[in-house]
Amino acid sequence: MTALIKTTPVAYAQHEQKPAMGVHNGMEVALSFEGAAVEKTHKQVLGVTDVSCFAKFGIKGPKAADWLAKQGLKTPDEINSWVEGAPGTLVLRLGGSEFLVEDQIKGNACNGLSTFNQDKTAGAYQVARADAAFILGGSQALNLLSELCVMDLRDSALASNAVVMTQVAGISATLLRESLAGEQVYRIWCDVSYGPYMWEMLLEIAQELGGGAVGLTARFQ
Amino acid sequence: MAYQLLKFALGGEYKEPRFFRDCQTPKKSYDAVIIGGGGHGLAAAYYLAKDHGITNVAVLEKGYIGGGNTGRNTTIVRSNYLTPDGVNFYDASVKLFEGLSTELDINLFYSNRGHFTLAHTESAMRTMRWRAEVNKHVGVESRVVGTDEIAKACPQMDLSCSGKAPIQGALYHEPGSIARHDAVAWGYARGADSMGVEIFQNTEVQSIDVKDGQVQGVHTSRGYISTGKVLSAVAGFTPRITEMVDLKTPIVIHPLQACVSEPMKPWLDTILVSGSLHVYVSQSSRGELVMGSSLDPYEVHSTRSTFDFVEGLTSHIVDMFPFLSNVKVVRQWAGMADITPDFAPIMGKTPIKGFYLDAGWGTWGFKATPISGKTMAYTMANDKAHDLIHSFRLSRFEEYELTGEKGAASVGH
Amino acid sequence: MKLLNCPMNGTRPLSEFLFGGEFREMPNPDTSSDLEWASYVHYRDNAPGVKKEWWYHSPSGTWFIAERNTLSDEVLATYLYGKAPDATKTTKPRAKKEQSE
After folding, report:
1. What digits encode the pLDDT tens for the residues B245-285?
2. Count of A–C CB contacts within 8 Å?
3. Would you call B341 an interface residue with chain C, using a CB distance cutoff of 8 Å?
4. What pLDDT does C101 receive?
5. Torsion of CA B313, B315, B318, B320, to 10 degrees
6. HEC string of chain B?
7. Quick one: how far is CA B342 from the chain centroid?
8. Which residues of C touch A95 (CB under 8 A)?
9. Comparing C100 with A217, which gets the higher pLDDT?
């Protein structure tokens, strides 16, 4: 039996751009769009990358933090904040007692968390996560966000470890700012069914501002 | 004719006769008191006098007649509802409306336009087919039409709605009409007054006397009035009246907003409603586009209007009619809509003897003005609910017999 | 743009919130009569004034209580259920008794 390969929820919206697709973490995603040189420029100005393929694990409940700690993950102390819970893995605290764990390009913590057994864990409940996820970077990133989001997300307003749950382009989304290979980038998660819409909105404005789509390969070069 | 006109012109006296007497001091007692001098209250007074010979009636209005929701609605008259009870009731109203200008001897500018409820999705089309079948079953003209017929009736519309919500079809309701709403109140007021009903403006009801479960009278800003029958027909103010008799209802007040554009030459013949885009629009006989949207999303007991509303509404109107992007909005306003859980009114008797309720008119009150007046007058005169309003009784909620009219609200609520 | 303060996420535009209706004490569904249940579901004191209401911050999924004047549309306080700033405003059985008197 062959392993099931999923396709990124954003694929439908990317179809016209004819990206070169490839599999990462069991999901087919866009690895490159217009070639390394163009995407490198886009990355500097304003690049949008689909990272829905990153493994995710959601858990909530009064004992959720304890359970994550037992699995060897660091969890944020403050509500609506995030930490690097393990090398290459983000742990977001969404409100009081809900957590989203997401492996980044080189993280590998979620695999171990799939051993979660509801019957043996009182006070913690797994939350199925299938978000569409994006990375937004480049010198114009804030200009794009100021068009789509009412929150002030400038560095002075958005603390470096803060998680913001707000609306982007009129739909519910989770946002944070992180440093990726020395560059400040924004992460956006939204409900999977809005993935294509979000991609279209982000890309439309990115192109207006001189940027464009950046594949997974160029993003992590 | 020419001579009379000349005589009138040279006479120097152009005073129009008053529509109704300027009543100031109420009598000590009336056979019935109607709270609320809007279309519904005045129609009830008119039919009490005309159909039932009860003319010793006072209508008490806190402001001026027709100044509440009667003058704030978007004047659409239609009967393409979803439940047979609703369709029968509103159809009776449409039929009364059609002869009303003659009966009241006032030009209501009743204008039959045809009413399209646009469907942008397959599921909306299913609801339209359902409504069409219910309507046809009880003899109301409604049918599902395709985009070609919509394009023919309204060639100015972008059927793709700027690509955002392409129109699949529509429910077409031929009797759909518009009318001059304030004239309806004025016509009923004149008719009722001429039969002896007394109308008191600037008269506020302060409390209602109830003894042993029977209404005794009302305290007003013009003194105490003794009466055994009180009708509350005050739309968005209903909770403030029911509070006086300690009656709880499922009504929640949400503002409903509307606006008009600057006047332009006639180009829009039909009435258009889009559930997906949350707009309805028609062109008045003055040339203004009358535009409305869905309810404000939460309870507020005031008639404030918001920028959010105009912004949202106009962006959708421009999706439908891109050429309107330079047209200005000249007025906006709000009314307080008394919304019920099943989107049907609350009419008839209450647990308090002699206290009758005509409420829960939410966003569907104007079109029901004649029939609600007629059936409430019957109910008050006989102390027995009229057959047409049986399913709208207040007790339906505790009897778990709601009506299920929600699907026919003109826009998504 | 109207703003509302979410107790978990701070001040946000009203468009991020959904109105959940007036806060009401639920009778025990196992023991209440049909009439009591109908009263709970449908009947309310809907006259204008300061009301306790349910509101929902939709991006974060947070339900909370707002005390709001439904006449003037002023919000007096927002807090998570059971965490009223003033002890007398909590929804303990005592408060329920006061309401029914």
Report:
1. 999 999 999 999 999 999 999 999 999 999 888 899 999 99
2. 32
3. yes
4. 32
5. -70
6. CHHHHHHHHHHCCCCCCCCCCCCCCCCCECCEEEECCCHHHHHHHHHHHHHHCCCCEEEECCCCCCCCHHHCCCCEECCCCCCHHHHHHHHHHHHHHHCHHHHHCCCCCCEECCEEEEECCHHHHHHHHHHHHHHHHCCCCEEEECHHHHHHHCCCCCCCCCCCCCCCEEEEECCCEECCHHHHHHHHHHHHHHCCCEEECCCCEEEEEEECCEEEEEEECCEEEECCCEEECCHHHHHHHHHHHCCCECCEEEEEEEEEECCCCCCCCCEEEECCCCEEEEECCCCCEEEEECCCCCCCCCCCCCHHHHHHHHHHHHHHCHHHHHCCEEEEEEEEEEECCCCCCEEEECCCECEEEEECCCCCCHHHHHHHHHHHHHHHHHCCCCHHHHHHCHHHCCCCCCCCCHHHCCCCC
7. 17
8. 8-9, 60-62
9. A217
B311 touches chain C (CB under 8 A): no
- Give the H/E segment covering residue A137: strand A132-137
- Please give the residue range of the domain that contains residue C26: 3-100
List, in order of start, the domains of chain A with CATH numbers.
6-52+131-219 (3.30.1360.120), 56-127 (3.30.70)
Average pLDDT, chain C: 85
Q: How far apart are CA B26 and CA B31, in angstroms?
A: 13
Look at domain B112-177+252-339 and name its CATH class: alpha beta
Q: Where are the domains of chain B?
A: 112-177+252-339
CA-based angle A93:A95:A100, to the nearest 5?
Answer: 35
Q: Which residues of C touch B399 (CB under 8 A)?
A: 38
How many domains would you assign to chain C? 1
pLDDT digits (tens, 9 = 90+) for B35-69: 999 999 999 999 999 999 999 999 999 999 999 99
